[in-house]
Amino acid sequence: MKRRTLLQAGLAGAAIIATGTTAKAQSETKPTEESPMDIVIAADPFAVDLKDAVVEHLKEKGHTVLDVGATKDNQVAYYDCAPTAAKALQDGKAKRAILFCGTGAGMAIVANKFKGVNAVCVESVFAARMARSINDANVLTMGAMIVAPWMANEMVDAWMDTKHTEGLEQFSDFLKGALKEVDDINRAQCK
């Protein structure tokens, strides 16, 4: 399988989004992968407002949200709440997690230290969709310095509504094999 071909197929998906068929429009025509879902959420103090906007959006869609991070009245650093969220995933308290900090990078770095956690920091709807389609990511991270609340909600919808290999079915064998290889590394290296 040529990686250039995979990249070109992914770019075709970007063209769909660029022409106005957004994740929101797609989610209105198809059900979410698993709805409702238990989702663990965490933010550091810098990203509480963004987190709150996404929590409201998720609850409107019928999801259950477990907030383990900072609130307006309680400051928790990203390196303290990301482990709590990762452990909630490991313990089966949630199927997915969404984490927020200034850039999203700190949350992704910390969350990825935990076995079974595949966190991806995204800055676009397309990246959120590909995080599921290509990488089957179970954790989405984003930054309040980068993403507006309306865009965060679009990104969350794209990520929640996409299945692994969706839109890239012709590369399904490669993507599933790659995921197995990454899972093997995860089991060997993460705690």
Number of helices: 8
CATH class: Alpha Beta
Summarize the helix and strand pattern as letters. HHEHEHEHEHEHH
Proportion of residues in helical segments:
40-55%
Strand line-up of the largest beta sheet? 2-1-3-5-4
For the largest beta-sheet, the strand count, sense and barrel status come to: 5 strands, parallel
Q: Give the N-terminus to C-terminus distance in angstroms.
A: 32 Å
The class by helix and strand makeup works out as alpha/beta
Strand count: 5
Uncertain residue ranges: 14-33
* pLDDT averaged over residues: 85
What is the alpha-carbon Rg in Å?
16 Å
Quaternary state reads: single chain
Describe this structure in words.
The structure is a single chain. By secondary structure, this protein is of the alpha/beta class. The chain has a single domain (33-189), classed as Sugar-phosphate isomerase, RpiB/LacA/LacB (Ribose 5-phosphate Isomerase B, Chain: A). The chain has helices at residues 3-18, 23-29, 48-60, 78-90, 105-111, 125-133, 149-161, 172-189, and strands at residues 38-43, 64-67, 96-101, 119-121, 139-143. It has a five-stranded parallel beta sheet, sandwiched between helices. Strand 4, helix 6 (125-133) and strand 5 form a beta-alpha-beta unit. Helix 3 (48-60) packs across helix 7 (149-161). The protein is globular and about 45 Å long.
Q: What characteristics describe this protein?
A:
191 residues; globular; 13% strand; 8 helices; alpha/beta; 5 strands
In short:
With 191 residues, this protein is of the alpha/beta class. The chain has 8 helices and 5 strands; from the N terminus they run H-H-E-H-E-H-E-H-E-H-E-H-H.
